[in-house]
Amino acid sequence: MPNTLKISKYKQMKKILFISFASIFLFLLNSCETGPDRSTVVGKLKSSSKLSTVEYTITKVVSSKNEGAIKTYFFAETEARIKAGIDLNKLKEEDIIIEDKKINLTLPQIEIISFSYPSNSFRVIDRYTYDSKLAPWKNFNFEKRDELFRQAEDDIKQRIKDLGITETAKKNTIKFLEPILRSIGFTEIYIKFKDEEDKKNNNEEQADESKEAETKK
Amino acid sequence: MTIKIIIKILKKTWYLFLIPIVYMAVAFTNLLPPQFNLFKKNEVKLIETPVLIKEIKEIGELVCAEYYGEVYADLFEAYDDVLADTIGKDSLYFDRMFVKYKYLEEYKKRIDGKSENEELNRAEEEVLNLREQKKLISNANDSLKTEIDSLEQQLSKLKKRKEKKEVTKKINEINKQRKVKVKELRTVNKKIELAEKTFMEIKEDLNSKDRKIADFIKNNNIVYLGRGKVIAGMDLMVLHDNSIDTLSTDTLRVKIPQPSLLDTIINPWFIRYKEDLLGNNDDKKKGKKSKKEKGVYGYEVIIAKKKNYSYDDIKLVKNKCLTKLADAAISRNTIEMAETTATDVLVSFFSLMGYSEIIIEFEASGNTNLPAQQN
């Protein structure tokens, strides 16, 4: 009798151990951070059909400091280039209405075609960059500089919307396409962009909604 | 006596030595405020500065192919490129380069030492020549020996005294010649021994120099991994009046420039945000970066043996990554793909305009195949 008890207890213990190990394993598996899988991107060649019509060159000062008993500073001038335009793949048959010599073209919305923040445009200003010989771990070494440039890239990308790049790209796209369309025989050319249409629709919808609300009242 | 004095001073001022120890202990436990903590590595934080527009340029680029790649480059292969560019340059240029690139001068000195390769080739050539000489002498010696053997055989068969005397005389003459040859052989052997020794010494010296260069590279290198994209397409701003020809109501002929690499881009971030930079509705729906995604760096340090590389050194390695990425894109036929896609895109664009037959012709332009970005 005591022997069978021992065996059942042993089996129970085994079960508990198995369950706890399995749950720990599952927890660890779940808690692992999944980064974007670069292997799905790197080494790939893909076709594209984007038309860039504007290039913005922007500058940004990248600066940082370590304050305290030992001060170190880093100061650099950087440049980024942003190209914007349209994706011609998104142009559908229904976006083009042709009536004899008249063409109505609704182009896809403006998007950023390429963003380039090249390291060879970074210029460290030695006059404002101070390193410490006493505490070299406080200096802005290449790893810290790279981190600063990553932060600067984030900052630039967050501000792209405010640069007015969309409007300039729209103007340039029209300016670019008009002569081409003229050269193939169109005399009356009307070009607009999808987002303008979306906005129009949204405004109309909002107006309808407010009218409905008013009539309900 | 002096030791006693030191001990006496230490006994009296022991508490002074305690101060740095206590400071270090407190500093390492992170109890000190950051401004008083000499040992704390500060968090790298960007000071907020504005983004200023420097230039707005009207362009007309048709992007037809994109290559995404990952390459790696190290400091010393980048130095090799710098040194290859310095051929025929004056010492002032070298001085400037040595100031700019921290390990270049030392590397050049070590590389220059390798010019003894020519000396090694000369020594090897001498050994080979001497061996050839030895072969010729020993062949001549052997033929003399066979001649003697045959004469001796002849001699044993001869009965007349006069004849015997003549043959013996001949044998003696040949023996004299053999002695000269043996002497020559000894001299050549000695020369070979000496030449081989010199050759081995030079070889050993070169090997040790090679080892030293390899060690120097190993101990001072930095290796960067660069991930980015290469864009290929064509500049349509060069289109002129004759570029588009309406041949008939249905047929159109379009002449466009040959595609080339428009940009080679490696940014600080390779993958960061998935959402559209302009916040367009379409892409917002596709999903933002999830909380668990970390992002992938554009430039990542793989090996760094030192902490104090100059900024120009780092720039040089990163540039090498760009060149390698452009090369990789070319070898993966990015330009050829751009050509095919350009034809497809333009055919579908103009067919939407009502043309059923579209002929696309590529005009040769001067700047094809140039890795154009790199600013």
List keywords for this structure.
heterodimer, A: 217 residues, alpha+beta, 4-stranded antiparallel β-sheet, 3-stranded mixed β-sheet, B: 375 residues, 9 helices, flat, disordered C terminus
- The count of β-strands of chain A is 7
Radius of gyration from the alpha-carbon trace of chain B, in angstroms: 39 Å
Largest interface: A-B, 102 and 97 residues
Ranges of chain A where pLDDT stays below 50 over 5 or more residues in a row are: 29-36
The arrangement of helices and strands of chain A along the chain is HEEEEEEHHEH
Structural class from helices and strands of chain A? alpha+beta
How would a textbook summarize the main sheet of chain B?
Answer: 4 strands, antiparallel
> What separation lies between the terminal Cα atoms of chain A?
84 Å
- How would you classify the helix and strand content of chain B by structural class? alpha+beta
Task: Tell me the radius of gyration of chain A.
Answer: 30 Å
Averaged pLDDT of chain B, please? 85
Give average pLDDT of chain A, whole number. Answer: 83
Strand content of chain A: 25-35%
Helix content of chain B: 40-55%
The helix count of chain A comes to: 4
Distance between the termini of chain B: 72 Å
How does the overall form of chain A come out from the CA principal axes?
Answer: extended
